[in-house]
Amino acid sequence: MDFVKFLASSGELYTLRAFSLGGRPVNDTTLTLYGTDGTTQLAFNDEHPAEEPGASCLEWQSPANGVYFVKVAQFDPSAGSCALTYNLEVVRGCLLYTSRC
């Protein structure tokens, strides 16, 4: 599992996604978003139908300015190897294919 932090601005919409998965079909990502304390779970996603199988995507509106944390992990915690790769993107705003935009 990997953790990444990012700076968010109050009231802004963000799209977070894990995509371009290597090692499929074993590679099945999950995204968990944590608050500024690093422990309070704010959102979770296991699948996103507009992405490739195993990819994950979250849309989230920041309640306050601060540093937030995202965890990328495998759906199956026993899965793991150097072949299981992904790209992670944190975008301010929403992407055209996402459900709320």
Overall description:
By secondary structure, the chain is mainly beta. 0% of the residues lie in helices and 46% in strands. It is built from no helices and seven strands. Strands 1-6-3-4 form a four-stranded antiparallel beta sheet, with no helix packed on it. Strands 5-2-7 form a three-stranded antiparallel beta sheet, with no helix packed on it. It is globular and about 35 Å long. The chain starts with a strand and ends in a 9-residue tail after the last strand.
Terminus-to-terminus distance: 29 Å
Strand content: over 45%
Order of helical and strand elements: EEEEEEE
* Helix percentage range: under 10%
Largest sheet: 4 strands, antiparallel
Specify Rg, calculated over alpha carbons. Answer: 13 Å
Mean pLDDT: 86
Low-confidence stretches: none
Number of strand elements: 7
Look at the helices and sheets and give the structural class.
Answer: mainly beta
Outline, from the CA principal axes? globular
Total helices: the number is 0
Instruction: Tell me the strand order in the biggest sheet.
Output: 1-6-3-4
